[in-house]
Structure formats: C-alpha cells, structure tokens
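Notes continue from the previous slide.

Worked example: a multi-chain complex. Inputs as given:
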Amino acid sequence: MNIVVCIKQVPDTTEIKINPVTGTLIRDGVPSIINPDDKAGLELALRMKDQFGAHITVITMGPPQADNALREALAMGVDDAIHLTDRKFAGADTLATSHALAGALRNLSCDLIITGRQAIDGDTAQVGPQIAEHLDIAQVSYLRKLDYDGKGTFTIERTVEDGYEILETEAPCLVTVLSDAYPSRYMTVKGIMEAYAKEVKVWGFNEIEVKEEVLGLKGSPTKVHKAFSRGVKAAGELYELDTDEAVGTIISKLKEKFII
Amino acid sequence: MNFHLTKEQTLFEQMIKGFAEKEVKPLAAEVDELERFPEETVEKMARVGLLGIPVPAELGGAGGNNVMYAQAVEELSVACATTGVIVSAHTSLCIAPILESGTPEQKKKYLPRLASGEWLGAFGLTEPNAGTDASAQQTTAVEDGDNYIINGSKIFITNAEYAHVYIIFAMTDKSQGVKGITAFIIEKGTPGFTFGKKEKKMGIRGSATSELIFENCIIPKENMLGKVGKGFGIAMKTLDGGRIGIAAQALGIAQGALNETVKYIKERKQFGKPLSAFQNTQFQIADMQTRISAARLLVRSAAFKKDQGEKYSADAAMAKLYAAEVAMDVASKAIQLHGGYGYTREYPVERMLRDAKITEIYEGTSEVQKMVIAANLLK
C-alpha cells in the first residue's frame, strides 16, 4: 500500500504572542513544529506500515525551512519526503495550496492520502477536503479511528458533534485526522541519524502539472480583511430548564440586553 | 570554530526535550520518594534508541555521537537525575569499554543487546577498601585452565540487579600492583555471583545501588576484556568517558533547578510584587545561568573532543569538576529563592540539591578531578 501524508510546518501557538498594536502574530523566536493534527496523521500511517506494510511518503508545501518538518517525519519512520517549494506557490490561500498539493499527488501512486483536520495557525480545515475534490476521490474528514481489512477497504470512525459515524470506503481515498486520534511516536535516535542522509525531493512549479493561474497569490481568492486578538469573554450562565421555560428565559435575556 | 549543534544534534535536542518532559519528569518525584527504579522509563528509552546512542549502527546502535549522548544525559537529568545516571552508567561504563577494548566476538555478543536496551549494563571497580585509591583492588581472579575464578566484592554499583552485563576488575597478579589488574565481562546469573546490600542514599534515590559479591565465580577466559594486567588502564579510560556523562548529569540538574526557579519567581509575590521584580533575584538567576552556560561549553567541548578522537581526559575532568560545583551551587540558590517552600518536598528543588551532591563524588571525586587536571599540566 502506498500512503501519502500531507503535513504543514506551523508556529507553535502555545508559545506565540500577538503584537498588541498591529494584532498580528509575532513569529520571531517562536519554534516551528509539525501541525499536531498532521502529526497524528503521520502516526496513523506509521501504524498502518507496522501492521500491514506500506510505503509512506510525506509531502509539505512551504518555504525552505519546512525541510525540518520533513526530516522530523523521516526520523519518525516515513520512507520518502517531498518538499514542494517555488516562488510561484508563495502567498497561497487554502485553494491555491490544495491545487499545488493535488498536482504533486497526481505524480504519485496513492491508496491512502492522509492530512490533518486543520492547521493550528489557520484553523480552516479546508486543504484536505479540497485536495480530495481536485483528485475526485472519496474523502472522510474528522477521522478518529481507521481499520483496514488488508484488501482495499477502510472502515472509519468519523467524529461528529454528538458522537461518531462509522463509514466504509475503498482505496484510493483521503482522510483528515484529529490530533488526539493517534498520539504520535517519538523520533528514534537512529532515525534522526539517518534523516539527513536521505534525499528530500524538492519539487517546484515545473515538476507538477497545474495551471499557473490557480497557484500562489494569483490563485488565492481569500483576502484577509483584519486580524485581531479575541477578547476575553465573561463566564456564561447555565440554566437547566424544560423547553417552554427555556424559551421564555432566552426571550427575557435578549430583551434585557435590548437585542429584541 | 563552530559552536552550533549539527542538524542531527538539533533535531535530537527537540526529541530528547520532549521525551524528558513527557515521559521522565512526571515520574521524578515518585521515583525519588519511593526509591523506585523506573523500569518503565528504561523500556521507553530503549524503544527510541537512547540506550545505544554512540554505538555504531552495524553493532545495533543508533550511530550517534558523544555530544548527543551528553545532550541526552543532560536533558534526562533536567527532569530526573536518577534516569540520567541509569543511561550514563549503562553507556559510559559498560558499553564504552566493550566498544573500545572488546574483541570482535565480545562486541558482537554484547553490544547489540546493550544498545537495544534488552540488557542493561553496569561497572564494578569500587571496593570497601578501594575507593579513590582504585589500585588497591582486593577482588582476585585466579587462572584455572580455560577459566578464571573470581572472589571478592564490589560496592556502590549503579544499576545493580537491574543490569545484565557487568564490567568487573580483579587482581590477577597482586605482585604487579596496578599492572596486575584485569577486566572481565560478567553476566548476571553466573553461579557464584550474587547481590549484597542495597544502599539507602541521600539522592538519585530511584537508581539501584548495590554490592556485588563473587564467591568462586567461574568466568571463561573469552570474557576477559582487554589483556591480562591491562585492567587498570581500561578502568581509567572508561572513567574519563564516564565523567562526560556525570558532568552532563550535573549540568542537567543545575538547568532543571534554574528552570523551576524562573517559573517560581515569576509567580511568587512578596511586598506586592513578584520575586522576579527584585534586582537581587535577577542578579541571582543571572549568575546561575552564566555558570550553567559555562559548564555546558565544558561538557560539550569534552564530548566533541572524544568524538574527534582527540585527548579529552583533562577536559572531561574539568567539565565534571565544574559542572558538579555548579549543580550544588545552583540547586542551593534555587532553594533559597523558593524560601520555605523550596525546603519542602512539594517542590522539586530540594530533590535536586540532594541529587547534585553525588556528582561531586562518584566516577572520581572533585579532588580526583583536580589530580587529573593538575597531572595534565605538570607532565
């Protein structure tokens, strides 16, 4: 089985600060990490490899320093790494990113494509599903568990608001994984020593077949209007009432605040 | 001149910091309080390759280097000095002499199992009457056909009954003095080899420290490490390397105590402001950090020289002498800055001071380090 895991290098938001004047992230001195949902995706792939045998390729799109994230994945046990980087990809929103990644994935043979649910720096949860749409393959988002029958059928538990669904799908398909679904393993010392001896394939615009106008800033319809820190909310009030009483309470609260 | 870690060492630093924080730190207080050997941590360390860092890949190790080994012992000791010394004794005192003095057969037999963590290693030189004067060995090894028969005892042996392979020194010819000492590889379970008293210690209380007893213990000649009469040289060379490990442990203890202190002084308020706002506190942590950074340069420089195949004996002695002093000083200051809370077991700094003391004693006391450093100057 060929598995491809798409990862993103993100600033560690637990250590990030926001510039109070401009409202933008202060990235200086903030360590970069593999996005937590993506790391769970790597772990899922590695467990599939341990159990069924698989060839795992990890791919990322990003600036030169994203190489570190690929080396970390290699040190955890993936087989191959591809770094998608080109000035023509710069300034990409989720749509342009997914076009570039889908272009790279078309060059590869994949039975299972794994992405994280969403990145902690953008929180959009769009890239994975968009890739599946571009490739016209089945997708299951918010994966919390995956079973494989060894013959091409995946049984997947997908988290929904008040529980989970059990779905079955055939390869090839794309799944987006939740960070707590598969707590990731550590890099091994041997893996670290070997990670830099392996080749990371660097692919640019010329290595993928995608029209230039859908890539980078040009291919990005999203425009950031404003970035700001979320204010601190006061603790809410909790009422346990039957429906009629609850409706009455809500109406009176809304009136109290002059909303209705 | 280049003071930067290599790419591999940088990636390793990221891994070992995460491992120590998540897997080692949560157990540190319990392991100390209950004097419990952290077997589960040893298993986890084995899985990620921390028990065979400088062993070449073809012998089942990680193919890393001594700088990485020092990073590992440091970061483990930031969280828990007990865990740091388990790795240090295993790697420096058992793996290293086999790697450096073993026959190809001995390397093939022992190193893959030691590096994978299937077996833990230990080292027995110290005896009741042979401490700093290690040449006064009373354990004897008498030749008997294809074997040696060993009698005697070793004390204060780290990893004790949790180890499987022991590097043991014994007198094969008393008339020759230090030239009559020979090293042997002895496995647990060999008839005549038993364990004596378990020590109750001030610090590193989770590490197992026991007496080893040999009564007519028959060891085949193929288990001799190095040549007859060359044991003392092997012991001294082994301890040179071991001092890098213990220096890294001391450094880790100091860094751990400073980390706890920085966290505490930002939270603790007296006279209406956090302790960190007082200049005396700031000057204290500035001194602590400066000395820790200096110790780290000494430790890394000694490890780097070992990796380069250069002489590093005096460098390792200076690193251990200084890092141990820094560990004592920083841990003591850390308690002072924590005030009364620092003296209780609610906070980890009191454990750190108890753990720090041993780094001035084992694998050569601070006085022995000064002898080594001075001898290097006067030769």
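Summary box: The mean pLDDT of chain A is 92. Chain A touches chain B at residues 68, 71-72, 75, 186-196 (CB under 8 Å).
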